Amino acid sequence: MRARQFAEVDTAPGTSCKIAAMQDEVDKSRLLRELRLDQTQREEQSSSSGGARGRRVVIVSIVAVLLIAAAVIYGLRWRRVEVQTASAIEPSASSAATGSVLQATGYVTARREATVSAQITGTLKQVLIEEGERVEAGQVLARLDDTAQRAALAQAQAQLAAAQALHAQYQAQLEQARRDLKRSQGLFEADAVSRQDAEQARTQADALEAQVAAQEKQIELAQAQVDGGRVQLDYTVIRAPFSGVIVAKAAQPGEIVSPMSAGGGFTRTGVGTIVDMDSLEIDVDVNEAYINRVQPRQSVRAVLDAYPDWAIPAHVIAIIPTADRSKATVKVRIGLDQKDPRILPDMGASVSFLESADPARSGAAKPKGVFVPATAVVERDGHSVVFAIEDDHARERSVQSGAVNGDLRLVEGLPAGVQVVRHPSADLRDGTAVAISKE
User: Fold this and answer.
1) Can you tell me the mean pLDDT for 120-130?
2) Which residues contact 59 (CB under 8 A, 6 or more apart)?
3) Is domain 98-112+279-362 in CATH 2.40.30.170, yes or no?
4) Residue of 114, 130, 235, 374 with fewest CB within 10 Å of its CB?
């Protein structure tokens, strides 16, 4: 029907162009409506996909925040807190003293210390020691060039052998002379020989006997020369006079050493210095105005400048019976009751003379517990506690506080030797990972 209308319209003159234009507009309107529909669908699809993407971003952000929070919590839990520590000290009977009556300062000294040298002048061939090495009594420390000593010993041994050979010759001649004398006496008794012949045989035997005796003395002289050669050879080997630690090495191979100092400084007078660490003690100068407070065998607490938290039990060995006029002091020797490799010669030390003059006589009982720095004891929930170091962690330990002795406090509930935190902070808790400060 529409085709017929179009055909009829086409028959009208001048209207064909208008109809074509109207048809084009209809087609364009339809295309625009289709395009609008496609755009709306795309926006709806875009909206739905954007919502899904947004949800994924939110989920990823939440997971990241949780991971970061877990990492922070983990790091805080395992972060090591730097602390300073001290050792719990087992008290001795001398710790029963009520307090210090006098304090003085001094230095650690060694009663047995020797600079070892050779007994003869010679060139060092070997030096077998180093600083810090422990040696035993009689151990070889160095060797000198022994070429001359060995040659002299060989010469003395050869002279001894010659003297022994000549002695054997004289001995054989003496035996023959004695046999001749015996025959001469028999012949003289039988009037077979004259008295003169018999006397000559006796004289010959006596002369040979004297030669044998003289040669025996020559053998003794040669033997003494051999012994002297061996001593000189032994002098080329330098040995430790006692057990101790080498604190100084003074010579090197190739240098000349001598027991006497030679001018010019080209000759060494020593190979090394040995200190007997078991002979360490403390020498202090006490003002003469307070020397009446010091008594022999008096209990002493010594503290090294290098280890201010370590109290060393000690006692008075002797009061040197002379005063220093320039300083108005009297020297006192302090013996250490506790040996430890941390104690070194020439270390500075301060000592406190305690009231208990003689713990062996006073019968003072050994206190119960251990000594720790007073600053290590803190209050937690109304209880006295200390923080002990176990496997790089601080462990809270309840203790019973006792008497204070200087900067130390006696506590019960800890074993001797355990490391405790000196100044525990308020936020230090049981199980906190710690790192021990080197200061």
Assistant:
1) 92
2) none
3) yes
4) 130
Residues 6 or more apart from 211 whose CB is under 8 A from it? Answer: 170, 173, 174
Region at 14 (left for phi over 0; alpha for psi -120 to 50; beta for the rest): left
* Lookup result for tokens 């301060």: 350
Q: Which residues pair with 336 in a beta bridge?
A: 314
pLDDT tops 50 at residue 369:
yes
The tokens describing 168, both together, are 């054997």
- Tell me, what's the pLDDT at 374? 84
What span, in angstroms and rounded, lies between the C-alpha atoms of 93 and 101? 17
| Token pair belonging to 102 | 């006098």
- For residue 213, give both structure tokens: 């005796």
Second CATH level (architecture) for the domain 81-88+367-436:
Beta Barrel (2.40)
Report whether pLDDT(11) > 50. Answer: no
Looking at the chain, the whole-number percentage of residues with pLDDT higher than 70 is: 77
Phi-psi region of 100 (alpha: psi -120 to 50; beta: other; left: phi over 0): beta
Over the stretch 376-435, which tens digit does the pLDDT of each residue have?
A: 899 888 888 999 998 888 899 999 887 666 577 888 888 888 899 988 888 888 888 888
* Whole-number Å distance between alpha carbons of 54 and 42: 18
Fold for 113-145+237-275, please state it: OB fold (Dihydrolipoamide Acetyltransferase, E2P) (2.40.50)
pLDDT band at 97 (very low <50, low <70, confident <90, very high): very low
Q: What is the three-class DSSP state of 204?
A: helix
DSSP string across 107-139? EEEESSEEEE--SS-EEEEEE---TT-EE-TT-
- 150-162 exposure pattern, b = at least 16 Cβ within 10 A, e = fewer: eebbeebbebbee
Q: How confident is the model at residue 86 (pLDDT cuts 50, 70, 90)?
A: confident
Which token pair is 52? 């899904």
Q: Where are the domains of the chain?
A: 2-78, 81-88+367-436, 98-112+279-362, 113-145+237-275, 147-234
